[in-house]
Amino acid sequence: MTGALDGTRVVELGWAAAGPLVGTYLAQHGADVIHVESSTALDPFRSTYPPFKDNVVGPDRAGMFAFYNAGKRGITLDLKRPRAVELALRLVKTADVVIESFPAGTLGRRGLGHDALRRARADLVILSSCNQGQTGPHAQHPGYGSQLTALAGFNELLGEPDRTPVILYGPYIDYIAVGYGVIAILAALERRRRTGEGCVIDLSQYEAGLQFLTPALLEHPANGTVPTREANHDRVAVPHGVYPTAGDDRWVALSVWSDDEWVRFRVALGDPEWSRDPGLATAAGRRARETELDARIAGWARTRPREEIVDALRAYRLRAAPVESVAELFDDPQLAHRGVWRRAAHAALGEIGLMAPPFALSETAARADRAGPTLGEHNEAVFKGLLGLGADEYASLAADGVFA
Amino acid sequence: MTALLDGLRVIEISGADVWGASAAAHAARILADLGADVIKVEPPAGDPVRAVPPYLDDRPGADRGLLWFALNANKRGVRLDLPRERDRLRALILSADVVVQSHEVIDAATAASWSPSLVVVNVTPYGLTGPLAGVPASDLEVTASSGALALAGEPGRAPVRTTLAQSPFWSGMYAAMGALFALAARAATKRGQQVDVSGQASMVTVHPPACVHWDVAKEEHRRLGAFLIGRSIVGARFRNIWECADGHVSFAIQGGPIGRHTGRQLASWMRGRAFSAPRFLAIDWDTFDNRTLTQEQVDALEGEVGAFLRTITKREFFAGVIERNMLGYPVADASDVYADPQLRSREFWQDTPIDGATLPFPGGFALFDGERPRIRRGAPRLGEHDAEVLGAVTA
Questions:
Q1: What's the CATH code of the domain at A47?
Q2: Do A167 and B240 touch (CB under 8 A)?
Q3: In this complex, which of B142, B166, B338 lies closest to A221 when CB atoms are compared?
Q4: How many other C-beta atoms lie within 10 A of the C-beta of residue B163?
Q5: From the CA of A398, how many Å to the nearest CA of chain B?
Q6: DSSP state of B48
Q7: Mean pLDDT to the nearest integer, B381-385
Q8: What is the pLDDT, as a whole number, of residue A200?
Q9: Where are the domains of chain B?
Q10: Does B189 touch chain A if contact means CB atoms closer than 8 Å?
Q11: Which of A88, A251, B186, B239 allows an S-S link to A323, with CB 3.0 to 4.6 Å?
Q12: What is the C-alpha separation between A223 and A403, in angstroms, rounded?
């Protein structure tokens, strides 16, 4: 066995991040994932979101699509046409899993609702992932992940007190929903292996995201409080912060979690006079003077190279790390050792960097060596090869715009 | 309905520090929510997360911490004094399908020698291999190492992390995912394997577009406060968090079909209130393309939009975007989330016991065949299931 999902077929209908990345994660572990799209309503990651090869917009020149659909086969069907819907259902008959991420009800209007899909294959696992779930007063509401992130309450918790909250980069909550979507599918497949039952999964990206905020949400009913952003302060560790180091926009993150660690921290700093103040020996004492303490540490760090500080603190088993920029991640020795970055050939982009999963499986390694498909790249392989359409029938359907 | 993971047993071993204990706990909680029988093994003094504030009624207590409660509902709990009671741990593990831990209390080779079909999950800040294996880190350092910290905050000021630690949730989620992939493989091979999760690598997955921009265009995204980048082919940034009359809202001037619909609707909203916004109201939405606007053009439009948004409340904004089917949401806080009619309609909240009280707790993360997995029990008191669980395995 090479991949944990070898022999599993997935049909995916959806665009942007929240649906398609689910398929990518399954493909990394061996599933045959067939992404269904249409040139009549292009994925925004093909049409709208940079970067494009040489900054020229084009569906096959889009870096985002190539990344978010890595490892899949790609076909085009214009699902406004009944023959296209028929073909989609024939494909679903061969599949174990269907992933869809359109606003609730969209596929039902095309004849591809849950009932139709399960008529095609009774033991199907279906993931419907949308902004707010398939039911309820806001089920139909369209949304982008960056804004849903705000609705869930993440941004309220990010930034400095008394200043405007800042964004969590990108559609943060979408990736949470992606993770839970993969988990839901895998758990449903686990049950299917035991009982033979399929499953319809209604995943609200909003509800998935709220899982990551559970303790902060609970503060409201537990204590009547409404938690808000506290910059880099922590309720246990003190000091706990991000400090400027030598160089332009270079920062170090560090934290001290106990009074014993404080003693080691002082030693690592060279036991400066100010740090010997007995008032700072306890967490309560340090917390009472956190502003002063932060200024002291910043003053110490500002003239020193970032790596030197990190090494000095880690030598005493203290917690410290460089604040790595995105470019630095590509040269990070630990990420390199873990095989996070992979490269794949791509027809228009030449080559694209892909990301392996953040976990290593000792027996069934993941793969991340195939970029997302070009538009309709696998039409012939799927419609002729897998579904057995004859050359004439294929040509006539193509002429009718079914594969648009 | 049979719970998805009915019949699966998971042993979770407490981590030595808050990060490791939190990440392992979240992984096991996900499996517990899906129906697995999760037994949490704590040291006699208790899991480190029990000592993390805040507490119910702000009154400290081993069973009153909200982080503890959040991460350990749906589990049973036992105390073991390791390594002294290693035989009892072994007996427990022999009854299980999956072990979840942070650092290696039980190494994978030993576990496999005990039970070849066992899946062993480790979730640590940097992973079990590589130059940083074994280096301690908390949420702040893990986030710093991943690029996620550099992408949050205002230019010229220190990068900021989310006030509630996020990396244990991400890492725990991937640990649960890895366990389920390993179980899928086990169904074919009858053999378990090790799942080695890196917190750092987990946090790299939260910002793929930044990686794609660097990789494809050698453009490096950096923190821009309340602004989005990556929407423009001329490098303009777009505001995504705005002041409103009583707080903040999330909104952006966007292109594409839904973005243009949103723009038209905002214009109609402004007209309905006779709000003066000459540039914004002059936009021809049929041809509008946000990708090619210069920063100066964006700033001018955003000046008008900002002035309008300052006249409406979070609640009005939420009602407006729903009614007009346009993109945008309020920047909600915990009280707003509890009041949300959508969540109430979907019976998201489930009353769950905590130390003699009951709190409305977020229910299972999805509906399966129309049913939301229940929060069947609160977090275990220290040693609550010692007799029930350890009695059964040693008998």
A1: 3.40.50.10540
A2: yes
A3: B338
A4: 22
A5: 26
A6: G
A7: 97
A8: 98
A9: 9-205+347-394, 226-331
A10: yes
A11: A251
A12: 57
Closest-CA distance of chain B to residue A397, Å = 28
> Would you name the residues of A annotated as active-site residues?
174
Q: Give, in order, the Cα–Cα distances in Å from B24 to each of A54, B15, B104, B238.
A: 44, 7, 12, 38
Q: How far is A80 from chain B (nearest CA, A)?
A: 17
Q: Same structural domain for residues A283 and A360? A: no
- Among B328, B299, B68, B73, CA closest to A138: B328
Q: Do A227 and B163 touch (CB under 8 A)?
A: yes
Q: Which of A9-13, A240-244, A345-349, B196-200 has the lowest mean pLDDT?
A: A345-349
Contacts of A233 (CB under 8 A, 6+ apart): A240, A241, A290, B163
Q: Does B334 touch chain A (CB under 8 A)?
A: yes
**A323 and A356 housed in the same domain:** no
Helix-, strand-, coil-residue percentages of chain B, each rounded to 5: 40, 15, 45
The CATH fold assigned to B9-205+347-394 is Rossmann fold (3.40.50)
Cβ within 8 Å, pair B160-A194: no
Distance (Å, rounded) from C-alpha B41 to C-alpha B43? 7
Contact check, Cβ <8 Å, A223/B58: yes
For residue A220, being part of any structural domain is answered with: no
CB contact (8 A) between residue B220 and residue A327: yes
Nearest to B4 among A151, A190, A328 (CB): A190
- Among all chains, which residue has been given the structure tokens 């040269």? A331
Q: Of B180, B26, B367, B163, give the one whose Cα is nearest residue A114.
A: B367
Cα-based distances in Å from A103 to A22, A77, A403, B322: 16, 19, 23, 14
Nearest CA in chain B to A149: B331
Q: Kindly report, residue by residue over B331-363, the tens digit of the pLDDT.
A: 999 999 999 999 999 999 999 999 999 999 999
Question: How close is the nearest chain A Cα to the Cα of B369, in Å?
Answer: 5
For the residues A129-133, what does the mean pLDDT come to? 96
Report ipTM for this prediction.
0.98
Class of CATH domain B226-331: alpha beta
Instruction: Tell me, yes or no, whether A103 lies in a domain.
Output: yes
The two structure tokens encoding residue B363: 């229910």
The answer to whether residue B276 neighbours chain A at the CB level (below 8 Å) is no
Q: Are residues A193 and A289 in the same domain?
A: no
Q: Is the dihedral of CA A336, B157, A157, B68 positive or negative?
A: positive
Phi, psi values for residue B172, rounded to 5°: -65, -40
Domain end among A272, A297, A328: A328
Averaged pLDDT, A250-254: 98
Structural domain for A309, as ranges: 240-328
Confidence at B394, pLDDT banded by 50, 70, 90:
low
Is residue B230 scored above 80 in pLDDT?
A: no
- Decide if B306 touches A, using CB distance below 8 A: no
What torsion, rounded to 10 degrees, do the Cα atoms A210, A216, A220, A223 define? 150
Among the residue ranges B75-84, B150-159, B202-211, B228-237, the one predicted with the least confidence is B228-237
How far from B4 is each of A195, A251, B180, B373, CA to CA, in Å?
Answer: 10, 45, 12, 9
User: Which among A112, A359, A296 has a CA at the least distance from the CA of B182?
Assistant: A359
Q: How many domains does chain A have?
A: 2
Domain end among A309, A328, A347: A328
A chain contacts of residue B226, beta-carbon cutoff 8 Å: 164-167
Tell whether A204 is covered by a domain. yes
